[in-house]
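Hi support team,

I'm filing this because I wasn't sure whether my run with JF5 finished correctly. The job status page said complete, but I'd like someone to confirm that the output block is well-formed before I use it downstream. Pasting the exact inputs I used:
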Amino acid sequence: MRIDVVTIFPEYLAPLDVSLVGKACAKGLIDVHLHQLRDWTYDVHKTVDDTPYGGGPGMVMKPEPWGLALDAVLERGASAAAPVPRMIVPTPSGRPFTQDLAVELADEPWLLFAPARYEGIDRRVLDEAATRMRVDEVSIGDYVLAGGEVAVLVMVEAVARLLPGVLGNAESHRDDSFAPGAMANLLEGPVYTKPAQWRGREVPPITVSGNHGAIARWRRDEALRRTAAHRPDLIARIDPAAVDKKDRATLAELGWIERDGRFQPTDAPVAD
Ligand code: JF5
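And here is everything the job wrote out:
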């Protein structure tokens, strides 16, 4: 997979040389190209921002450097296997970045990230780019960053670990929270390793029982408990048909009962 990033802070993307993504690059599984947006400015100050039309606080990224940068990257990166990239623009007002979107992006041969600074990029840049390639504005969460670079790091790491050959067997991802499977859409419960006793604390005896059926059952209960505590929205999305008797009992103990075909808090008002 080829990944291009156009940014005024390429140094901010230095972590892409480290750890999992760094190793994937070293193995030739990912080919990262960082570009300095200011290389496509032609004034002495290398200006990339200007005041917003209509007034208001902050600055907006000027269209001309972005237009030239995108022209150059599209030309330089094009290959028979990947004639155009899929462009991703991080912004709090984008569509949510989810594991499903990471899986979709992991299937693309070429990604082009355009992280903004200031109040964002002149809209015409995205509108024109969208006539040449698929463009998605994507949010990594409901908070505001100083710029999109950190969001690019997040997305590249989430995508990279899904590429064939990036993860070793030991770190395989089939049991991830949000990955498809039996625990789909449940958060993972606690994990333990040796020593079995540490600072007077024992691991839960079930985890060393050797009873793999009972361990799987316990893990599922712990997953339900954590999900109910931290992400009640995910409990509300559980398909009641995917739930066994013990799940149902655990959910009831946690204050969730099935009503009108979905799980709801025991004390939720009754719909009429
Ligand atoms: C950005 C305008 C882009 O702050 C973010 C962000 C938050 N969640 N996902 C992305 O991106 C930087 C800030 C303001 C455009």
